[in-house]
Design a protein that fits this description.
The protein has 75 residues and is α+β, with helices and mostly antiparallel strands. Helix content is 28%, strand content 37%.
Length: 75
């Protein structure tokens, strides 16, 4: 397994429930190993995934399906 990571910059200010929901939705995507939003920087989600199984744009789409606005930032 080869892992890659990227950051999703989320435009909205997220409350605790929205943070958990975004992490759960991203983590449920195929190939995702972890998805975490830092408590001090609630607009940044770090996602680690296996690119042979999943696609960063699909993961971003899952987060956007929550009504959030964001962009991919590479690491």
């Amino acid at each position: 397994m080869s892992l890659s990571d990227f950051v999703i910059h989320i435009d909205e200010n997220l409350n605790e429930l929205e943070v958990k929901e975004a992490e759960i939705v991203a983590s449920a995507c195929t190939g995702v190993v972890s998805a975490h939003i830092n408590n001090h920087h609630r607009h940044l989600m770090v996602v680690a995934y296996d690119p042979s199984l999943g696609c960063s744009s699909h993961i971003l789409g899952a987060v956007r399906s929550l009504g959030l606005h964001g962009q991919l930032l590479g690491l």
